[in-house]
Amino acid sequence: MNVNTAEKAIKAFLPNPGFLMKKIPTWKLTVKEWNAEEFKTQTSLLFDELNEQYGWVQEKFEFAEEQAYLAYKKNDKDKMRDKVSEMMVIEKKIALIEKVCPIVENVQAQAKTLRKEKKCPEELEKDVAVVIYLADVFSIPSFLRVKHQFTFKYGEKYIEKICGKKHTNVDEEIVAMVEYKPESKAVKERAKQVTEDCKKREKEEEKAKKEAEKAKKSGKSGKSKKHHHKKESSSDESESESESESESSEEEKPKKKEKKEKKEKKEKKSESESESD
Q: Half-sphere exposure of 108 toward its Cβ, with a 13 Å CA cutoff?
């Protein structure tokens, strides 16, 4: 398992790391009634924290995709189907977040109205219901705290109608996305598609591996050629050096001859002088 896959594994199996500290519900000990300032603060965080969740869910999808590829390489068809099913569920969750983003932004925009009005305005009932419903689905801190404030403001029965079996005022499509479980036939069809994608990826990886090995070999041969040229140049240098040495020795020869002749002349002169005496 490479470093990138290991990181994805940690992010996929742990709760969203950005929320780990926030998820400790210590705020429930201090926030025991409706608090306008608390509501204002938490509604301002809704979209940003939902966006964080979106990034985390995407990472979870990428990891499931990677696991499906490993299952393909091991020819583990059961694990492949499990991972494909997981991918399909995560895809629905990604689509869900994309769908509810405008709803969450509207609740943020209408936070002032919601703080002032004792009852939930009729035109905002559906949007408020979605935020309350998704609090337990995503376990995002700001959603949970806003839901907690709505419990104080509108009462527990109001919350129960939304979070209970009926899901009052919650869009049916949103509920279907949350409760989505792919059928066996759909998983089988998707598994075929994923298998084809895995085959393409495997071929591309093999091709890239061969090209890398080829480049490595050509790099080594290039280096050996450079060393060979260096040896040739060094031999040329030694030849030129020997030539220069031979030339210098040839130059020195007449000089030695001249010295010898001078010496002989000197000796003859001294001999003639001694004879005359």
A: 18
Tokens of 252: 């020195």
In a domain, residue 265? The reply is no
pLDDT mean across residues, the chain = 82
Q: Give per-residue pLDDT as tens, 3-17.
A: 566 565 555 555 555
C-beta separation of 33 from 81 below 8 A? no
CATH number at 62 reads 1.20.1260.60
Does any domain span residue 152?
A: yes
By CB neighbour count within 10 A (0-12 exposed, 13-18 middle, 19+ buried), where does 50 fall? buried
How far is residue 171 from each of residues 71, 89, 134, 168, measured CA to CA in Å?
37, 19, 12, 9
pTM to 2 decimal places: 0.68
Question: 91 and 61 in contact (C-beta within 8 Å)?
Answer: yes
Rounded-to-integer distance, Cα 112 and Cα 115, Å: 5
| Domain limits for position 26 | 3-196
Q: What is the CA radius of gyration of the chain?
A: 43
